[in-house]
């Protein structure tokens, strides 16, 4: 190659490199940026407000942030969600009972008994005061009450006639007959051989001993059945089979009847008769339920005692339930129960309650209501017409919820 040709190629290469370098500088520093991407208009315009949340439900144990949960307006009638309640008393009340569509209660603050009628009016049942009443048992018509006092004294007071009957001091754990004017009690003598279940007229006369208690008085639960067949349950023997927490409950009759016993799967037996006395709702706590209380249902007449025993799947105590008819039950169910709560109830942190409805015919339990204010419920009562549910909250105040 000649020197002339080499010189020409070098000049051409230099020129090309200058153009390439210039293009690179232009691209990096002088060319305008590409236009931003655009979004086409949508049908829904932005309004400047936050999007609404869905309806809130019962918060589970794993819901700790509360994100995405909105406030839900309480229903005025129980329909399975958050339900409005009305507080009827300003102070603590005890010993509530349904009287038709009215509700009676004892007010420890002034020692008087009151009734709230269908119009919501609070009326004193008597001007007589009964300070420091310890327990109250109402008769079948709710016009008489048997009162036990801390000093051991016992009286029956008739609110219609204002008559008062004094009962022996060594009698305790009373119940009224559901069909007659009789009462039952434990007569506790100093000598264990002189401790009996006794039945008497509600004036204290015509006393009859029906079963010896011996040293087992604390293991006998007085609970008179509505059909007048059973007056108590005795948890005095171990089950013939099964683990240590399986119990054999003996029904006690008025005439030394030899009723078939109940085998229950757990401890702390608490029972509640159906209005016709044909079935028994009860709770026990066993190893199978992590020693949490569990509700069971069983046939309980003299001929069917122990038949068709089955769990209803609700972890609560029977004394937090109430029958409305022989086919309907309402229960207050804790939203959180720790292991062994059924064995250490007074020490257990049970959390707020929700209310379940049980269809006894199908055995199905369904959530009925979540009280709008978190509370621990200590009793439930349904008006005779089925429209009102009464309960006491964790402050002991009486509250009302409408069922329909």
From TrEMBL:
<feature type="transmembrane region" description="Helical">
    <location>
        <begin position="7"/>
        <end position="29"/>
    </location>
</feature>
<dbReference type="InterPro" id="IPR011042">
    <property type="entry name" value="6-blade_b-propeller_TolB-like"/>
</dbReference>
<keyword id="KW-0812">Transmembrane</keyword>
<keyword id="KW-1133">Transmembrane helix</keyword>
<keyword id="KW-0472">Membrane</keyword>
<protein>
    <recommendedName>
        <fullName>Dipeptidylpeptidase IV N-terminal domain-containing protein</fullName>
    </recommendedName>
</protein>
<feature type="region of interest" description="Disordered">
    <location>
        <begin position="40"/>
        <end position="68"/>
    </location>
</feature>
